[in-house]
Structures are given as structure tokens and as C-alpha cells.
Amino acid sequence: MMRFVLAAATVVIGLSAIFVFATNYGDVGSQQSFVLESPRPSSSTPARTEPAAARTEPTPAPAPVAAAPSGVELPPVTAVRANTRLAIGRISSNVPKHWPRLEAMANYLAAELAPYGVTGVDIKMVDTMEEMQELLVAGEVDLVSETAFAAIELTRSGSADMLLREWKSGVSDYHTVIFARRDSGIESLDDLVGRTIAFEDRGSTSAYLVPRAHMAQEGFNLVELDDPLARPPRGSVGYTFADDESNVVGRVMRGYADAGVMSNHDWSDEDEVSEVERRDLVLIESTDPIIRSIMLVRNSLDPDVKSLIAAVLQQMHESEAGLETLREYWKVARFDRIEGPALENLLTARALHETFRSF
Fold first, then answer.
1. Which of 143, 186, 317, 319 is the most buried (most CB within 10 A)?
2. CA separation for the pair 192, 187 (Å, rounded)
3. Range of the domain at 195
4. What is the pLDDT of residues 84-131, one digit of tens each?
5. What residues are paired with 335 via a beta bridge?
6. 150: closest CA among 94, 97, 99, 203?
7. How many helices and strands in the chain, by DSSP H and E?
């Protein structure tokens, strides 16, 4: 086997060995859900099918940079004979928005992998983490990309391995910023004791899971409140959910929350926080960066096929067809290996995840 294949396989196995632990971090999707998939022969899963098709100045989100060549070569066509269909999955109930993005990636992979015996790439969408785990175990999904906490959870049972870092929205990592009104007198997390903070929703990595775990690591006791106007018990910080980023900002601006959270990229986005709002707000805390997104692969997939997929994905940004697909697929800049700073950011996410599962 060529050196790049062996190296890619080692990265996958090593990461899956590191990140295997249990957690339950809240709701992910609705209680009633279904599998939405493109047609796939001999599927044993009941499915509904559709045809394929720290207080500082604001930290600006980094602009996407030109990606360097991957240095990865594809193996000879005779080296891998897959003779199989593959499936790419997604945890989401927003079919109209996400199906076209998945379809673009499925079509690209199908074309690139056809010479190696891959007869097609199907699409499967489910509402919950539990359903995706079941499909991975059953061999009904082979690839799925997720944010750090969800990726760690998907490796818990050994059903998936972390394959590559995904530069979603053109960035490799992100962090959470915590903000308050400039005229509130709040200058640090210590000033939030006896006050309230607005999170986005239970499934948000940067706007709930990370900041709540971070505050717990810093020794703060957080208590969920049913009413945004309620005050927390003595010595604690109360929190509520605002459902989206703009509502988080709105609650802080209107005094329904003393502080709010969002990712540094959302903070720098004029569509999320206007210049007028930003002048009236101040950052009081920033968390350490974590990896932005991860492409995972089914644990039981043939190792040669895993390495082949990793090579194809790492080369995507080197061709016009690949770049166009990446833009359609969540505006991804590139895929690369989880090593160096990427691994450090993943280890940070793991520590936060372990804190969160202790609640």
C-alpha cells in the first residue's frame, strides 16, 4: 500500500481510539423522524425515499485563504476495487435546504470513485443522532460530516471514525464569544453571578454546548430558567434559550438577558450583529478555539475504501469541479488531515465535551 494510504488509515484509527466515550448532551432533532434517502438496493432500513438529485476588541472572522496543494496522490485504479454503493448522510430535518448540498457532494464522489468500482453514492437524512448511529452500525451510511461535539458522540459506540478536518464556511476552527451591553457594568464572567445569559438552542455547539461547558470549567453554577425575566438562585447564573442568533442579540439589547453568546464568525457577520448593535455591546469572554467541522467515515468500511475517499476529498480543492462542489457543500474550502493545530483544537473540544457530559 502506498505511504499516503497507510498514513491516512493511521490518522483515522488513532483518532477513533482517542475519542470513544459516552454522553447525552440534550435534544438533537425531533422525536418523530424518518430516514430520507436516495434509492439504494437491498436497504434493510425502513425509509421514505425520494429520487437523487476574554474581554477584547471584536475578533473578526478570518477570510478564506487559498488552499495549498494537498500533496496527496490517488492510488492506481487497479489498487482498489470497491464493487459497492456508498451513502452520505446528514442529521437534519431541513430537507429543502440540505438535500441539494448533499446531492452535489454525492454526484462528485460518484464520478471520482467510479473507476474504482463504486457504483453510486446515495443520500440519507435523519432527524436525530441516535438514528444516524443506527444507520452507521447497519452499514446504511458511510460518510457524514458534523461539528465537533456531534462528531465525538458519533464515535462513542465505535460506529464511525474521524477521517478529515472540514473547512466549513471557509474556516478551520472557531470559538465562542460572550457579550453584554456596554452600559451594563458587566466586565467579566464574575459579574454574571446573580444575572442571566441567553444561549441559542440545546443543539448549538458554539452557542450552548461550548460556552456552558467553559463556564462550568471556570467554576460557575448555571441554572436553567423558564422565564427570561426570572432571576437565578443566589450564587448562580441563570440561562434561557433564544432559538437563534438574532434573538440572542435582541434579548441582550432589550434587557431580557444580561449576556449572550455566539461564535466569533457570527459576531463578525453584519447579518447577525449590526454595526449599531456592535457599538452598544462589549465582549467579556472568549473560549479557546475548537475544530470547525469533521468528516467521519463508517468504522466498518473497508480500510482501502476509507483511504481512497480520504485522498479524493483532500484533492477536491485542486480542480474546478471540486471547488464548485465544495462551494455548494456548505462553502467548504478544503479537507485536510487532523494533525498539528487541528488535533489540538479537537483535544480542546474533547475536554469541553467531557465537562458537558458530567452535568
1. 143
2. 9
3. 176-287
4. 899 999 999 999 999 999 999 999 999 999 999 999 999 999 999 999
5. 166
6. 203
7. 11, 16
